[in-house]
């Protein structure tokens, strides 16, 4: 299927200098207004037919960006267009062309069955009444829920709910699809099935913007990835390009117990160290240190960690995850 | 991915001009709301029991008083109280619940006009309220021996229908604020009782202070209960019925205006989801 044409003729998704601020308040008696900048000058461009991944940690601004694109939030400033339609001035035109697949449990009518959930939205999306039944059967087949149509959604597993979200997003056959962390909380087999459907949709010519904080997910299915951190895009390219940015680095992993904050600070200041990520495990800490190629770190690290119980020290090849960690922890 | 493409996109959508698709959207929302309410044990219990409590209070009050007005007069007032409670509670509860469930966002994101989506919800809750009217009349007849002789059954049915539609449209006006504010249930609780009093459902309007009258005249239950009482007890139901329809039209126009603005404000304030 050829990528969809649109009046603008250019990018399917176009975001220029997007900013979004949330206003909240603190205090019980003396209320103070607080502005939280969730997205700070984000720009991206997704050509028709591309599967684009927006990768970032929790709170980076991924969901805010996708909600602006889906017309659920107004941008504080900046320009956002989907298939040439402005999300502020032409929300109805945007809504006809997009499907939004939520991640997580919410967003479905639990007391009703799967078909009732879809039938209502078929009317809201103006699907021809005589085609509704056939279309619902098709999307249920596509997401692997055939035979479960008449069951109440409250009895569905998380994976089944996710597939029903997907069915609803595809019901009106939109040319542009937004997936907000579609595999979050889904078991590995279910998550693989969701990724498979997303890949097939991309092959069928849909333009897809997917948010995730799973590296392997972005690596395995996305044609292009942007890493977002603190409301800004810090890197963009193909997964290969992002990986090559850290290819010339040395990665040292140290598993230790009770490393003081002061020592972590000293490790960060060591000559040649590019970044340090600390993952707290049950009792131990896993320090992942990225350093310039050729930097001889092991001896200096062990010196700094004197008095701390060190379980293991290992050197390994950098991965996309290292590229991601380096990007979101720097600055 | 072949299944996603079996029905060609061009043939998938209705090609009728937008206004011709609006009745189906409203009807679909109305039916959907009825189905959802039928699945809620709590709402069913509220709809079953509450009108009987209202009817008992109203008629016991009448029997304890000077009995200048027939029991049917109070039974009808209690019936409208039931419809109003169902609308205000059902509409506020439905939107609050939709927000909590995360389904308000998909509704707003659909290309159908939000005002029609809300209209379906409010008309659905008002229709459930029709039960209140029949239950109240039956309770009055069975327990309090009220004479349920309707003077003009045709006008009575028409007045009942007009009242339900008017209350549904009043629910639409309120629904616009419920979209904007997360604590919509609290708003509905706050406005439930004052309307009973102001619109003369429990006590005749003439007993209320003069400053409440202008407020009563812009509220549809005032005219709905007058039309129903006139049709049931003998009198002219047509003038209050006409005012009920005028109020309905006013609510519809106000609802359309408010929903359009409130949707924009909700997108600005990020109040469409629960977080």
Molecular structure report:
Chain A is built from 11 helices and 14 strands. Chain A is α/β, with parallel strands linked by helices and 331 residues long. Chain A folds into 2 domains: 231 residues, 3-Layer(aba) Sandwich (Rossmann fold); 84 residues, ACT domain (Alpha-Beta Plaits). In chain A, helix 3 packs across helix 4 and helix 4 crosses helix 5. The longest helix of chain A has 16 residues. The N terminus of chain A is likely disordered. Chain B has 12 helices and no strands. With 275 residues, chain B is mainly α. Helices cover 78% and strands 0% of the residues of chain B. The interface between A and B is large, with 50 and 40 residues.
List keywords for this structure.
heterodimer; A: 331 residues; alpha/beta; Rossmann fold; Alpha-Beta Plaits; six-stranded mixed beta sheet; four-stranded antiparallel beta sheet; 11 helices; B: mainly alpha; 12 helices; 78% helix
What is the H/E order of chain B?
HHHHHHHHHHHH
Shape of chain B: globular
Class per helix and strand makeup of chain B: mainly alpha
Question: What percentage of the residues of chain B does DSSP assign to strands (E)?
Answer: under 5%
Q: Helical residue percent of chain A?
A: 25-40%
The DSSP helix count of chain A reads 11
Termini gap of chain B: 35 Å
Q: Any low-confidence stretches of chain A, pLDDT <50, length ≥5? A: 1-5
Report low-confidence residues of chain B grouped into runs of 5 or more.
1-8
Which sheet architecture does the biggest sheet of chain B show? none
Largest sheet of chain A: 6 strands, mixed
For the biggest β-sheet of chain A, the strand order reads: 6-7-8-3-9-10
Level-2 CATH architecture of the largest domain in chain A = 3-Layer(aba) Sandwich
| Biggest interface, CB < 8 A | A-B, 50 and 40 residues
- Which structural class do you get from the secondary structure elements of chain A? alpha/beta
- The CATH topology of the largest domain in chain A is Rossmann fold
> Share of helix among residues of chain B?
over 70%
Order of helices and strands of chain A: EEEHEEHEHHHEHEHEEHEHEEHEH
């Amino acid at each position: 299927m050829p990528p969809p044409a649109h009046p603008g003729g250019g990018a399917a998704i176009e975001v220029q200098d997007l900013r979004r601020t949330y206003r909240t308040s603190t205090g019980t008696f003396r209320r103070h207004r607080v502005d939280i900048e969730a997205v700070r000058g984000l720009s991206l461009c997704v050509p028709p037919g591309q599967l684009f991944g927006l990768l970032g940690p929790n709170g980076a601004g991924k969901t805010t960006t996708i909600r602006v694109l889906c017309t659920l939030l107004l941008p504080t400033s900046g320009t956002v267009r989907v298939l040439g339609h402005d999300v502020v001035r032409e929300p109805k035109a945007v809504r006809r062309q997009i499907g939004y697949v939520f991640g997580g449990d919410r967003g479905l009518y639990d007391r009703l069955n799967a078909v009732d959930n879809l039938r209502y939205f078929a009317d809201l999306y103006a699907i021809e009444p005589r085609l509704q039944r056939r279309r619902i059967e098709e999307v249920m087949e596509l997401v692997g829920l055939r035979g479960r149509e008449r069951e109440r959604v409250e009895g569905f597993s998380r994976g089944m709910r996710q597939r029903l979200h997907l069915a609803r997003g595809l019901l009106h056959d939109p040319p542009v699809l937004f997936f907000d962390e579609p595999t979050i909380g889904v078991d590995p087999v279910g998550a693989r099935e969701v990724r498979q459907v997303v890949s097939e949709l991309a092959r069928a010519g849909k333009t897809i913007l997917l948010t995730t904080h799973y590296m392997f997910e972005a690596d395995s299915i996305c044609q292009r990835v942007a890493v977002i951190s603190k409301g800004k895009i810090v890197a963009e390219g193909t997964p290969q390009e992002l990986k090559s940015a850290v290819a010339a680095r040395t990665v040292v992993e140290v598993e230790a117990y009770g490393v003081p904050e002061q020592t972590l600070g000293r490790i960060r200041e060591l000559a040649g160290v590019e970044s340090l990520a600390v993952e707290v495990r049950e009792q131990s800490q896993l320090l992942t240190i990225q350093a310039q190629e050729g930097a001889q770190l092991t001896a200096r690290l062990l010196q700094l960690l004197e008095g701390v119980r060190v379980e293991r020290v290992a050197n390994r090849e950098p991965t996309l995850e290292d590229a991601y960690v380096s990007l979101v922890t720097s600055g | 991915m072949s299944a996603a493409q079996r029905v060609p996109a061009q043939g998938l959508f209705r090609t009728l001009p937008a206004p011709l698709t609006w009745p189906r959207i409203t009807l679909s929302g109305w039916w959907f709301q009825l189905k959802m309410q039928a699945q809620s044990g709590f709402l069913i219990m509220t709809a079953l029991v509450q009108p009987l409590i209202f009817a008992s209070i109203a008629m016991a009050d009448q029997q304890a008083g000077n009995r200048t007005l027939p029991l049917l007069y109070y039974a009808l007032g209690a019936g409208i109280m039931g419809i109003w409670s169902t609308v205000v509670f059902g509409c506020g509860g439905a939107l609050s619940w939709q927000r909590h469930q995360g389904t308000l966002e998909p509704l707003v994101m659909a290309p159908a006009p939000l005002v029609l989506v809300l209209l379906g919800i409010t008309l659905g809750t008002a229709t459930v309220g029709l039960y209140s009217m029949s239950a109240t009349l039956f309770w009055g007849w069975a327990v309090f021996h009220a004479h349920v002789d309707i003077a003009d059954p045709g006008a009575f049915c028409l007045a009942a229908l007009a009242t339900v539609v008017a209350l549904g449209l009043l629910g639409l006006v309120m629904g616009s604020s419920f979209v904007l504010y997360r604590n919509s249930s609290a708003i509905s609780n706050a406005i439930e009782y004052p309307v009973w009093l102001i619109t003369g459902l429990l006590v005749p309007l003439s007993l209320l202070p003069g400053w409440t009258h202008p407020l009563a005249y812009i509220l549809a239950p005032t005219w709905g209960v007058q039309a129903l009482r006139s049709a049931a007890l003998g009198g002219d139901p047509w003038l209050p019925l006409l005012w009920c329809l005028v109020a309905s039209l006013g609510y519809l126009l106000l609802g359309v205006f408010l929903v359009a603005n409130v949707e924009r404000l909700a997108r600005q304030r990020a109040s469409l989801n629960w977080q």
